[in-house]
Design a protein that fits this description.
With 95 residues, the protein is mainly beta. The chain has a single domain, classed as Pleckstrin-homology domain (PH domain)/Phosphotyrosine-binding domain (PTB) (PH-domain like), CATH 2.30.29.30. It is 15% helix and 60% strand. A hairpin with a 2-residue loop joins strand 6 and strand 7. The chain starts with a strand and ends with a helix. The mean pLDDT is 87.
């Protein structure tokens, strides 16, 4: 799936851009992109995700969590994408 993401670090440095993500057996695999350029690949074990929250941001669904002292915020950018992300991440982190 493909959506908009913000990643905020402790020093307040923030990445804003798009991410292509997929759910694996025990992990969330993400590739950060800007245009057609791949910036980096991140693999997050579900067991290391903390502070998972789901809220609204300017009327759109947003999924937030903490991993490795960074806040990841996924913001809905497409039909059905938000519900897909919510369903799968909630299911994976409760397993």
């Amino acid at each position: 799936m493909f959506t908009y993401i913000q990643i905020t670090q402790r020093d307040s440095e923030t990445f804003k851009g798009y991410v292509d993500y997929e759910f694996g057996k025990d992990k969330l695999s993400m590739t950060l992109v800007r245009g057609m350029k791949t910036l980096r690949h991140i693999v997050i074990p579900f067991s290391e995700i903390t502070d998972l929250t789901i809220d609204k941001f300017y009327g759109e669904d947003r999924v937030n969590f903490i991993y490795n002292a960074q806040k990841f915020s996924f913001i809905n950018t497409g039909y059905g994408e938000s519900k897909y992300l919510q369903h799968h991440i909630l299911k994976a982190t409760k397993a």
